[in-house]
Amino acid sequence: MRRSFFCGLATLLGALSSAAGEQPVPTTARPAPTAALPSIALPPELDRVLRDYERAWKGHDAAALAKLFAEDGFVMSNGSPPVRGREAIRTAYANSGGPLALRALAYATEGDVGYIIGGFGRQEGSPDTGKFVLALRRAADGRWLIAADMDNSNRRAPPRTTPTPTPAPPPN
Predict the structure, then answer these.
(1) Which among 9, 56, 116, 127 could disulfide-bond with 65, CB atoms 3.0 to 4.6 Å apart, if both were Cys?
(2) Which CATH class is domain 2-19+42-153?
(3) Which residues, including other chains, have CB under 8 Å from residue 157's CB and lie 6 or more apart?
(4) 19 pLDDT more than 60
(5) Exposed/middle/buried for 164, CB within 10 Å: 0-12, 13-18, 19+?
(6) Would you state the pLDDT for residue 25?
(7) Mean pLDDT (the chain, rounded)
(8) Can you give the residue ranges of every domain in the chain?
């Protein structure tokens, strides 16, 4: 089951990127800052995933957040190791929550797999503070669940500084 999900998602993403004619960007290239990408409307069954996520996050409800994920779902947050499985997700989100506004930038579905790419901020209409990709899988009851939630901040991490070694005193 897991293999078929990831194979289906890889096929979907590959087909969409070739259809769009996207070219890979060299890792050394840094795109110039641009204005915020426009939000798009999602079909109701996908929009429900975002609105339920917002509601649970705002309510500091880790159990409700975990229920939005597939039983073997992943959370892959900026600066943290991956978390896998509903119980681990509930534990990881136990002390999380607060203001949140999610918006969609792109989405696609093919059969029982799909994704939503989006941005997030503290309130609707405010600039995005980060971005996310939700890999989705349709459950047996037809409801879309999150198979993987990958997010990160729009802020660059501060550069690491290495302390300058103190020279050893000269021998006597």
Answers:
(1) 56
(2) alpha beta
(3) 79
(4) no
(5) exposed
(6) 43
(7) 83
(8) 2-19+42-153
